[in-house]
Write a structure and sequence with these properties.
By secondary structure, this protein is of the alpha+beta class. Helices cover 26% and strands 29% of the residues. The protein is built from three helices and twelve strands. The strands form three sheets. Strands 3, 5, 6, 7, 9, 11 and 12 form a seven-stranded antiparallel β-sheet that branches. Strands 4-10-8 form a three-stranded antiparallel β-sheet, with no helix packed on it. Strands 1-2 form a two-stranded antiparallel ribbon. A hairpin with a 3-residue loop joins β1 and β2. The protein is elongated and about 85 Å long.
Length: 187
């Protein structure tokens, strides 16, 4: 009988600890520091978009040359499209998502990464500057301003443009057909 009470006490303690840990997890999930994890989880469960906005204000898909996959030097390929526009033209989110990075580094110079539906990662590079207040963890909607067309990174000295790419679980893919699909839906 005494052993049964000890075992019951252990189980009650374990269940109590599990309830406390569950309450802490629920609380933590709702906190601002969990926004990227929370939003990324929700976005990952959504289907990939079949159509996206052109990420440069005032530009139509027909104005964009499809340079996806073109050689860039001897050892790499172009994993996106270059969208030329006047310096300072607003660059907008092509889809809803959560900002995963805002940084100034590497070939892309000033860049923004946004996680979107199906866990796709959208890359906006060569920006002149970022939108005021843009930061890691910010939830964005399609059309929200992320930055402005420029020539930062390895594009310095070239005509101002946005390098835009989309990366899925199996690597980069051409974003231009999705922009054409959005244009076709408007008609």
């Amino acid at each position: 009988m005494q052993q049964a009470r000890k075992n019951a006490g252990r189980w009650i303690g374990r269940i109590g600890a599990l309830l406390v840990l569950s309450a802490i997890a629920v609380w933590a999930w709702q906190q601002p520091f969990a926004v990227v994890a929370r939003e990324s989880w929700m976005l990952a469960r959504m289907p990939a978009p079949a159509a996206i906005l052109v990420p440069v204000q005032g530009i139509k898909p027909r104005q964009i040359a499809d340079t996806f996959g073109a050689p860039r030097g001897r050892d790499r390929k172009h994993h996106g499209v270059d969208i030329f526009a006047k310096r300072g033209t607003p660059v907008v989110a092509a889809t809803a998502g959560v900002v995963a990075a805002v940084r100034d580094s590497g070939l892309g110079g000033r860049q923004v990464w946004v996680i979107s539906p199906a866990g796709q990662r959208h890359y906006y590079a060569h920006l002149q500057d970022w939108a005021p207040g843009l930061a890691y963890g910010r939830v964005v909607q399609a059309g929200d301003v992320l930055g402005f067309v420029g020539d930062s990174g390895n594009a310095r000295g070239t005509p101002p443009h946005l390098h835009y790419g989309i990366y899925a679980g199996d690597g980069p893919f051409d974003p231009l057909p999705l922009m054409h699909a959005a244009q076709a839906r408007k008609r």
